Amino acid sequence: MKAVIFEKPGLDNLKVEDSAEKPILTDRAVLIRVRTVGVNPIDYFAVSGAREVKPLPHIPGAEISGTIEKLGDHVKEGNLKEGDKVVIHNKVFDGTCDMCLDGLDMLCRNGGLIGIVTNGGFAEYISVPDKNVFKIPDDMSWDLAASLPVTTLTSFHALKDASLQVNESLLVYGASGNTGMMAIQFAKKMGAKVIAVSKNEWVKDFGADYILKDYGKVVEQVKEITQGKMADVVLNSVGIEAWQSSFDSVGVNGRLVTFGGLTGADVKLNIQSLYLKQMKLIGSTGGTRKQLKDLLNISNELKIRVWKRFKLEKTKEALQALFAKGREGRILIDVDTS
Fold first, then answer.
1. Are residues 191 and 312 in the same domain?
2. What are the b/e assignments for 65-97, b being 16+ CB within 10 Å?
3. What is the average pLDDT across 100-128?
4. Runs of H (alpha helix) within 29-177
5. Does 264 have pLDDT greater than 80?
6. Between 294 and 263, the higher pLDDT residue
7. CA dist 162 to 280, 318, 337, Å?
8. Residue 308 CB partners (closer than 8 Å, separation 6+)
9. CATH code, domain carrying 132
10. In this model, does residue 185 exceed pLDDT 90?
């Protein structure tokens, strides 16, 4: 099969093999022919060496959609069958640790991420446990399908963790990025007022009530919009570049939720401001299988904006495009278009 593989970290070490070994289908696994894969910072961290991966040589790719090619011998045909359009819940989990038993499979003490601790989806085929495979509606676009397992689920879980309420205000950094455009949609469904930090007017099409284009004046603009209260919830998905203004934009008893570090992860924290405003700092990661299933039930109400798409042979360029100044939406890799 064709696959993108690297033997040691570094974008320049990525290569496309035409005769890579096809994954083995075990009894409780599903063999999936990959259709479209989302390009995510996770993939960049895997290839660059910022995240330790296994096995080596390694196939990256964490956000995967495709069609079922074959079911393992012990997978009962019913909910899943050959030819189904599916997405892959990208968490490796054992189902037996305390986190899994509490329904927090993405925090499994013995787990990890597909594409990090196992081979990923930048290949024509991938084999994963049947418990990780979710059927999607036949009429769902591949663009949205490839955006559900990480991009969409991460935003959904983060806002749930932050307990965003009706009539509260949400400030979204990275509003025109992968997770940002989804967070806006979920916040509107939750009845919140959304303030988007972006230079792109199109985020209004996703439900943003206000767009802040001057990154240097975010705090004072939030103060004006909220009449001095500041934001109830601030979502920072970009990291250190937006850290201080994110922190300063949180109101009394507000919440700052973060899950991204593409611009850096080491920040300074003013503890006095933290406790005087009784702020809550929330780190959020991924989401649960139950939440992914919930997303599928409302998927017909969601939309995604695609900026660029690449073939598998151009994976290096796709990963580099994550840092493009003019990026306006998702980057996708179309593995199979037949």
1. no
2. bbebbebeeebeeeebeeebbbbbbbbbbeeeb
3. 97
4. 41-48, 98-101, 142-145, 153-161
5. no
6. 294
7. 9, 32, 39
8. 318, 321, 331, 332
9. 3.90.180.10
10. yes
DSSP letter string over 82-96?
TT-EEEE--EE--S-
Range scoring the smallest mean pLDDT among 73-77, 155-159, 196-200: 73-77
How far is residue 108's CA from residue 54's CA, in Å, rounded to a whole number?
A: 17
Above 90 in pLDDT, residue 266?
no
**Do both 131 and 158 map to the same domain?**
no
**pLDDT tens digits along 88-112:** 999 999 999 999 999 999 999 999 9
> Which residues constitute the domain of residue 226?
152-283
In the predicted model, is pLDDT for residue 338 greater than 80?
no
Q: How far apart are CA 146 and CA 331, in angstroms?
A: 10
Residues 136 and 9 in one domain: yes
CA atoms within 13 A on the CB side of 46: 33
What pLDDT score was predicted for residue 262?
A: 72
The one-letter amino acid at 299: S
pLDDT score of 241:
87
Vertex 297 angle, CA 156 and 168, to 5°: 35
Distance CA 241, CA 236 (A): 10
Its pTM stands at 0.93
Same domain as 309, residue 220: no
Q: Which residues contact 125 (CB under 8 A, 6 or more apart)?
A: 1, 22, 23, 31, 32, 33, 34, 69
Q: Report how far residue 214's alpha carbon sits from residue 299's, in angstroms, rounded to the nearest whole number.
A: 33
**Tokens at residue 291, please?**
């939440």
Q: Are residues 139 and 157 in the same domain?
A: no
